[in-house]
Task: structure prediction
Amino acid sequence: MGSTDFDPDPLLVYGDALAELVPGERALAAVVTKPSIGVDPPLPPDEGPHEYTAGSVAAGVVGAVLSPSLPGAMFPWWLLFGRSAAGTPASTAAASRRACTGSATVLLVVTDTTLRLFEPRDSAHFIFEPGKDYGPAAQRLRPLWETPLPTVRSARVGWYRLHPCRLTIEFTDGSWTAFASLFEMGRRKARTAVRALS
Result:
């Protein structure tokens, strides 16, 4: 058994599990991260189209400040973290945000055909012991969401508000979503996903 790794490569940690869960696909990059903190676009799937733009954000913020009956508590949240995603309730970004509901940590995986999100169900992504039996793949990773790579328009990483390292993924329908985790996804790891998506 090898030495314990406190900053393991997610591809090394979950490579075997991914090969079992997505046979026929080759994993190009994997990062452990979190859905970015911030103001989400409208997510309910039964609502009509609603564009979440800079103008609508500004109007909502002003309205919240001027009218205490509106959710003014969102103003400091928006001020500190900005938007976490944008798009209509039927957009690709909204679907990815809905899929992450209730999952504090996600494993973002880019394969040769698909962008995937999983929920890690063990602690191996944080403390990895080579040679240890972590159990069946289905018990280690819970599939949350997926989209074909052609639906991804671009990806970038950079500093945004209080996020020193935020991974933003834009889709071909014009929507986008972001991921950030100060302790789990630094710039080096985030850039592996950007390169795989480019």
